[in-house]
Write a structure and sequence with these properties.
The protein has about 190 residues and is mainly beta. The protein is about 10% helix and about 45% strand. The strands form 5 sheets. Strands 1, 4, 7, 11, 12, 16, 19 and 20 form an 8-stranded parallel sheet that branches. The protein has a 5-stranded parallel sheet with strand order 2-5-9-14-17, with no helix packed on it. Strands 3-6-10-15-18 form a 5-stranded parallel sheet, with no helix packed on it. The protein is globular and about 40 Å long.
Length: about 190
């Protein structure tokens, strides 16, 4: 258990945009608390440059006033974030619901993000389930990724990701789908 005042475990992650950037792999952050007056998340309050997160998870409590999420609070302008085979099962309390997401809180204009074969189990402080929130002129991709939903008939364009019921998470339906995924350079067999 830990208690950190600041963006996240790494506070800010800065990846060099001239090469492959920074890769965070095979890391779990459990039973921790991260809080910040700005951007907050378990891994980083903010990412700059090229950053990838793969085979990672958080079961932490996150509280923030800016971009707030399970893994990354804010993807900064001109940055690229890729998340693969990762999940959040912690509690997220964002002051600004529009900048609160399950995996990514907010993606700035002219930034890019991609989420592959991942999920979020928290319904967020807004009562909505999603994977990310983004500015209207932001480029993002969500593929084969899920969020918990008590009403899967809700429009997925506003929920950003595929809704799955608590029963589908509990009975292994989502786990099997994640495990069987093998596209876009992602091997789901880790599930």
């Amino acid at each position: 258990n830990s208690y950190v005042i600041g963006g996240g475990f790494f506070t800010n992650i800065i990846g060099n945009s001239n090469d492959d950037g920074v890769a965070i792999k095979n890391l779990g952050i459990t039973n921790s608390f991260f809080s910040d007056g700005g951007n907050a998340a378990a891994f980083a309050g903010r990412v700059d440059g090229i950053v990838s997160i793969e085979n990672c998870f958080s079961t932490s409590t996150i509280k923030g006033n800016g971009g707030t999420a399970g893994l990354v609070g804010l993807v900064y302008t001109q940055s690229e974030l890729t998340i693969k085979n990762s999940f959040n099962a912690g509690v997220i309390n964002g002051w600004r619901n529009s900048e609160t997401g399950g995996l990514i809180g907010w993606i700035n204009p002219n930034a890019k993000a991609a989420v592959f074969n991942s999920y979020n189990l928290d319904s967020l402080s807004s009562g909505l389930g999603n994977l990310l929130n983004a500015n209207y002129d932001t480029s993002y991709t969500i593929e084969h990724s899920y969020h918990i939903s008590f009403d899967t008939s809700v429009d997925t364009t506003t929920r950003k990701g595929t809704g799955a019921t608590p029963i589908q998470f509990a009975d292994g339906t989502v786990a099997k789908a994640l495990h069987d995924y093998k596209e876009n350079g992602v091997d789901g067999s880790v599930w």
